[in-house]
Amino acid sequence: MDLPKIDGTPVDDPSLKVLVANNSDTLKLLKMSSCPHVSPAGILCVADQCHGLRELALNYHLLSDELLLALSSEKHVRLEHLRIDVVSENPGQTHFHTLEKSSWDAFLRHSPKVNLVMYFFLYEEEFDPFFRYETPVTHLYFGRSVSKEVLGRVGMTCPRLVELVVCANGLRPLDEELIRIAERCKNLSAIGLGECGVSCSAFVEFVKMCGGRLSQLSIMEEVLIPDQKYSLEQIHWEVSKHLGRVWFPDMMPTW
User: Fold this and answer.
1) Using CA atoms, how far apart are residues 173 and 203, in angstroms rounded to an integer?
2) Per-residue pLDDT tens for 138-185?
3) Cα separation, 8 vs 6, whole angstroms
4) Are 119 and 86 in contact (CB under 8 A)?
5) Do 23 and 1 contact (CB within 8 A), yes or no?
6) How far apart are CA 146 and CA 210, in angstroms?
C-alpha cells in the first residue's frame, strides 16, 4: 500500500513515526520529495521498520549513508525505484553533503536492478560533492545549466546510466563529453539536450557509437554546429542511418 499523500505537507518526524507504525507491514511506496520538517533520522526510521518498501522518493537532504545501509540490510526487500531531488533555491546558502562510495556499493549489491533517478536543480558551483566516484544512477536530469566539467565526470562515474537530460550548459561545445558518455555508458538509451552546443561531427559520432539502442534522441537544431564534415542538411540522413529509423532534430517554435 501507499501512505496517504504526505509529499508537500507539514508532516514531521513524530507524525511520520505514527504513520509508519500503523503501516509498517504493508507500506511499499513512499514519496517525500517535499517534506521540509522531516529529518534524516525520521526517514531512517521508515527504512528500519518498513522492510517491504520498494519505491522511495525523497529530497537529497534526507539521504544519508545510514539510510542507504538500512535499505541494504538483509531484512529489507530489494528496492525497485529510488528518486532523489537535489535542489538549491539560493546559491551558496545550501550545504550538500558527500555520501561514502561504500554505502552506494552496499546499496547496489543489495538492489542490483534498482532504478536510481536523480533530478538536479543546482547552480554550477554547487556540484562539487557529486560525481566524484562511481554512482549507480540510471536516470539523470539537469534542470539548470551544468558545466562541461560536471558532464565529463558523469561520463566517468555513471556506467549504469540509461537516460540523460541536460537543460543547458552555456553553449560551450560538449563534443568530448558526449563521446565519453557514449564510450562508458553502455546502457544509455535516451538523451535530451536543450541549450547545449555540439558539433555535427561529434553528434554523428555519438549516435554511431550508441547505435539503435538510442530509443529517444532529442536535440534542438539551433544548437548543432555545422563543421567541415557535416552540414545541418546532411546530419538528418547520417543520424537516421545509424539509428536505423528516420530522425530529425527538434525545431525551435517560431511564434
Assistant:
1) 10
2) 999 999 999 999 999 999 999 999 999 999 887 679 999 999 999 999
3) 6
4) yes
5) yes
6) 23
